[in-house]
Write a structure and sequence with these properties.
Helix content is 42%, strand content 21%. By secondary structure, it is of the alpha/beta class. The relative contact order is 0.10.
Amino acid sequence: MKRRIAIVEDEAAIRANYAEALTRQGYEVAAHADRAQAMAAFRVRLPDLAVIDVGLGDEPEGGFTLCSELRALSRRLPIIFLSARDSDFDVVSGLRLGADDYLTKDISMPHLLARIAALFRRIDALAEAKPQEDCLERGALRLDVMRLAAQWRGEAVDLTLTEFWMVHTLARTPGHVKSRDQLMHDARLVDDGTITSHVKRIRRKFAAVDDAFDAIESVYGMGYRWKDA
């Protein structure tokens, strides 16, 4: 069965270009021109992945709003921002709202397709996890791989797909430092440009449950590790 990708882009020529390229790669594509149209479609049927522009028509922040609305419908759905806006503020804002990636429109089509493929590989890897890895427990942490559900001290921590995979990668080998390259490989990220932002957001989510949370340790010049209990 073909995977369905939603493109939300207000410029018709750009929207058609992305839709054509993704269709050629064997994806089913649903293209939407604005936030209202996209949400109406999402409430009927969720795509397998969404690619969203930040500015949508007369809504300069429409993509950010759409991301929040879409994330409320599905915690696991992969979301990629694809925008001409490249400020650090916009990138951090997009990731904070729950996007899995933030790309600028000067990215090449092969690079965009690689990012999309990487997210789908991560979903497949989670789905194919071995039975003995269905549940991972490290002290106060409990990860249910089949449900993509995380708990800390018995309380749910609402992680996106990327966040869950990064926590899983670190927690599998507590005390071992994961370099940025290793995190890129294990978490199926194409580059390390957003790793720091993801880690910061993960820490904030755990801290919201437990303000004493300090299980993710930065190792200067090397990477990150999950602290031994």
